[in-house]
Design brief:
CATH class: Mainly Beta
Helix content: under 10%
InterPro entries: Aspartic_peptidase_A1, Aspartic_peptidase_AS, PEPTIDASE_A1, Peptidase_aspartic_dom_sf, TAXi_C
Radius of gyration: 19 Å
Pfam family, one: TAXi_C
Structural class: mainly beta
Protein name: Peptidase A1 domain-containing protein
Domain Peptidase A1: 1-223
Largest sheet: 6 strands, mixed
Strand content: 25-35%
Number of domains: 1
GO molecular function, one term: aspartic-type endopeptidase activity
Length: 291
Amino acid sequence: MSLACCGKNETGIFLNGFAPNGLLGLDLGNISVPSTIARKGLGPNSFSMCFGSDGTGRINFGDNGTSEQKETSFTDEPSFPIYNISITQINVGANVSEMEFSAIFDSGTSFTQISDPVYTFISKTFNSQVTEKRHSSDSQIPFEYCYDMSANQTSFMFPTMNLTMKGGEQYYLTNPTEVFSTKGGYVYCLALLKSTNINIIGQNFMTGYRIIFNRDKMILGWKPSNCYNDSNLNTSPISPSHSPTASPSSPSLSPALAVNPQAKAPSSYSPKLKAFTCTIMMIFFSFLAIV
């Protein structure tokens, strides 16, 4: 989660693929937006973020979640105001690893980054369970494990993947792949980056969920959502917004195994890694009235 600031003279990657107009402070620090809302008595010290499979997103300040959500506790990191959690088990298809590690839930990171030995277990196990030919090394694609699709191929299969959080709750990954349109056709990749010393659960592993950051109870909650039909949001006293009159059909709540590449691929091959874009619908009317 980023500290609050605004972009002015943007250069480099900010001019290629994405150009934010500013960053919203959502971390555990005292100057973040949720801390300010709670300190001024405008709402609970909690918020949620939803990442839809169609690229739509929603942020709700004051959202404490619901009784149906699954939860895990944040790991206390006094020196860093971050949302750190513990993962005790990884499932990739029928393969299970008891590796325990900590990771940061960070909506400001587009793609998940994991260090060894966890990265090697996930990637090699994934690789052993797909049928397409491994794509040759490509400096224009940031992911290591990519696969070529045939000219007439309309879908591809990948193994179910889920994380077991500390406390025993399961967190299924609904969007672990990314599709690229190259000169030779479609290529799909395990959208996981190898890190040297830090583990970050990025936006792509949050897709298909409403993620609740309950800072009062210091818990992370999650519930399957398409970001349109969250009619049971607990956001009092902050006024909820209305869902769009027309919304796409609800995505599957279990991990998608068959994927249409044309639905995921960009219209043309781009040498730059495009960041996940998210249309934020801010339910924040009470706070806006004072700024």
